[in-house]
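R.M. (postdoc): so does anyone remember the format we settled on? I'll just put the structure tokens first.
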């Protein structure tokens, strides 16, 4: 079983490394690759780079395609080479998956039309641009599309996917091996529980780090042939 993660500049590294850590324990003959145009280090939003293990030309098929998110999402959608690879791999993959805003890349590649999908709460409202139905859940399973919510949901997503493939007992054993027993010190992990003040703080930060990203995404969607909603 071949697992291909799209790796791209300014990716949110935990979107990728969280589920990659879980899925690396899928067992059997599973092989996991981090795929980008070249094998040069790819900068993440955490200030360090990750090395790809394969290039687009070297991966022409995957049983599982997983697309993480991050502030680099719009750059990927604007990149014809990257999008052609996502569309090609996703069209034939057994499982088409994403974490966080990675679902916007899947959507832009035409892989979520008519599917329910998750996304980071801050951009979930953009999914209808690509014909997807946004769902405010930690993990969303719709046929062979499995999409996670924001960042840390990638671990939940990966365990859910693992249970679908290897069975719940295997997934439970992996959860135990990782001591995944979350007990956050604060109850502020969703906009509903965090409250309006913290939500506004987050939105101001996004406006500073990625000004106009929603408007840019609408423009990119239109260029890719999607009707604006």
């Amino acid at each position: 079983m071949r697992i291909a993660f799209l790796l791209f500049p300014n990716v949110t590294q935990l979107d990728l490394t969280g589920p990659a850590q879980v899925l690396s324990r899928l067992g059997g003959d599973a092989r996991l690759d981090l795929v980008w145009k070249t094998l040069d280090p790819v900068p993440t939003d955490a200030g360090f780079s990750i090395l790809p293990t394969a290039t687009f030309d070297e991966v022409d098929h995957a049983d599982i395609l997983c697309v993480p998110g991050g502030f680099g999402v719009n750059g990927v959608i604007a990149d014809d080479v990257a999008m052609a690879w996502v569309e090609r791999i996703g069209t034939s993959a057994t499982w088409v998956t994403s974490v966080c805003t990675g679902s916007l890349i899947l959507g832009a590649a035409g892989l979520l039309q008519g599917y329910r999908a998750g996304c980071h709460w801050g951009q979930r409202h953009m999914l209808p641009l690509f014909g997807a139905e946004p769902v405010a859940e930690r993990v969303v399973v719709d046929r062979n599309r499995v999409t996670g919510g924001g960042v840390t949901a990638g671990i939940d997503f990966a365990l859910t996917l693992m249970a679908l493939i290897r069975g719940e007992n295997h997934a439970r054993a992996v959860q135990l091996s990782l001591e995944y027993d979350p007990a956050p010190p604060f109850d502020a992990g969703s906009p509903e529980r965090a409250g309006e003040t913290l939500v506004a703080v987050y939105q101001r930060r996004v406006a500073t780090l990625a000004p106009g990203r929603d408007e840019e995404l609408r423009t990119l969607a239109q260029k890719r042939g999607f009707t604006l909603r």
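R.M.: ...and that's the designed sequence above, right after the tokens. Also worth knowing: The two ends are 38 Å apart (CA to CA). The chain has nine helices and eleven strands.
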